[in-house]
Amino acid sequence: QVQLVESGGGLVQAGGSLRLSCAASGRTFTNYALGWFRQAPGKEREFVARWSGGSTYYAGSVKGRFTISRDTAKNTVYLQMNSLKPEDTAVYYCNARLAPIDYWGQGTQVTVSS
Predict the structure, then answer these.
(1) Any bridge partners for residue 79, and if so which?
(2) Cβ-proximal residues to 54 (8 Å cutoff; 6+ apart), any chain
(3) Coil vs helix vs strand at 87
C-alpha cells in the first residue's frame, strides 16, 4: 500500500521558516517525480515545487524562498520554506507522480501570521 506522510507544518510568523518532510512508502519511487502542492481556503490546489530526474522546478510565487530536496535512500522529499508570507498559508500536499499515476499525502497545515 502506497503511503505519503507529510510532517513539519505549523504556525509561524511572517518572515519565519518551516521545513516540511514527506516520507514515501509502499513501492520504489526512483522513477517518480516527487513534489509539493498547496491549497488555500476557497482556492484550487496549486503547484509549489517538484524534484524530477535531478532537476527542480518551482512556482514563481515561491522561487528564491523555497527549496525542494530529495533523499532517494530514505524515499523522502523535503521543502525548506524561508521568508514565509501570510499568502503562503495553505494545506501543503506531497505528490508522487509517474504519469498517469498520482499519489497524494493527507496534507499538512501551514499558517503564516502577519
Answers:
(1) 20, 68
(2) none
(3) helix
- Alpha-carbon distance of 62 to 97, in angstroms, equals 21
pLDDT one digit per residue (tens) for the chain, 114 residues = 899 999 999 999 999 999 999 999 998 888 899 999 999 999 999 999 999 988 999 999 999 999 999 998 899 999 999 999 999 999 999 999 998 999 999 999 999 999
Point out which residues pair with 52 in neighbouring strands. 55
Read off the DSSP letter of residue 54.
T
What pLDDT score was predicted for residue 1?
87
Contact 112, 85 (CB under 8 A): yes
Residue 15's contacts (CB-CB under 8 Å, 6 or more residues apart) are 83, 84
In sequence order, which residues have a C-beta less than 8 Å from that of residue 99 and are 6 or more positions away? none
β-strand partners of 83: none
